[in-house]
């Protein structure tokens, strides 16, 4: 039997899903709360930015309004989203900083 001690291992690395995996893991560990999209109602577009549209919505029987932020390309944005969440956690002690509640997935059809 021969031993190819100096053989080179060809490794193909694909980091494109690394950030998606991190978000999914955080949801699985309940570090990020996942909301069922079916519980949102009365969805109305209120603005848009470079990365997606923003909607005003209600959730279940909660009477206040929430902002739902959508992304045109979540996969391409995942790294920036993780970074935003880290930054948000640093400063969420201040009352003027809006709270991050969690994530949902769905196709907005209004
Ligand atoms: N929590 C919120 N409550 C009310 N309106 C909001 C809220 N978040 C965003 N908006 C509205 O949606 C618009 C887009 O917001 P978004 O955060 O996506 O982009 P931006 O911060 O304006 O710019 P960028 O695309 O560079 O991030 C805002 O300009 C605002 O009008």
How would you sum up this structure in a few lines?
It comes from Rhizophagus irregularis (strain DAOM 181602 / DAOM 197198 / MUCL 43194) (Arbuscular mycorrhizal fungus). The chain is 26% helix and 22% strand. It has helices spanning 18-28, 74-91, and strands at residues 40-48, 53-59, 62-69.
Q: Hetero groups bound? A: adenosine-5'-triphosphate
Q: Uncertain segments of ≥5 residues (pLDDT<50)?
A: 1-7
Principal-axis shape: globular
Strand order of the largest sheet: 1-2-3
How many strand segments? 3
Count of alpha and pi helical runs:
2
The CATH first-level class comes to Alpha Beta
Structural class: alpha+beta
Q: Name the beta content range.
A: 15-25%
Helix content: 25-40%
Oligomerization status of the protein chains:
single chain
Largest sheet: 3 strands, antiparallel
**Termini Cα gap:** 66 Å
Folded structure, characterized:
- The chain is an alpha+beta fold and 110 residues long.
- The chain has a single domain (15-91), classed as Phosphorylase Kinase, domain 1 (2-Layer Sandwich), CATH 3.30.200.
- The protein contains two helices and three strands, in the order H-E-E-E-H.
- The protein has helices at 18-28, 74-91, and strands spanning 40-48, 53-59, 62-69.
- The chain has a three-stranded antiparallel sheet with strand order 1-2-3, with no helix packed on it.
- A hairpin with a 4-residue loop joins strand 1 and strand 2 (53-59).
- Helix 1 packs across helix 2 (74-91).
- The longest helix is centred in the last third of the chain and has 18 residues, at 74-91.
- It is globular, with a radius of gyration of 19 Å.
- The termini are far apart.
- 3% of the residues are buried.
- Residues 46-51, 54, 67, 69, 98 line the site of adenosine-5'-triphosphate.
- ATP binds at residue 69.
- Keywords: ATP-binding, Nucleotide-binding.
- GO terms for molecular function: ATP binding; protein kinase activity.
- Pfam families: Pkinase.
- InterPro entries: Kinase-like_dom_sf, Prot_kinase_dom, Protein_kinase_ATP_BS.
């Amino acid at each position: 039997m021969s031993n190819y001690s100096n053989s080179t291992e060809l490794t193909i690395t694909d980091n494109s899903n690394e950030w998606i995996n991190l978000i999914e893991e955080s949801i699985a560990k309940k570090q990020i709360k996942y909301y069922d999209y079916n519980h949102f109602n009365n969805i109305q577009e209120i603005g848009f930015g470079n990365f997606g549209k923003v909607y005003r919505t209600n959730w279940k029987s909660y009477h206040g309004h929430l902002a739902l932020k959508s992304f045109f390309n979540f996969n391409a944005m995942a790294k920036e989203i993780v970074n935003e969440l880290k930054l948000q956690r640093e400063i969420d002690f201040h009352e003027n900083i809006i709270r991050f509640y969690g994530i949902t997935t769905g196709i907005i059809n209004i």
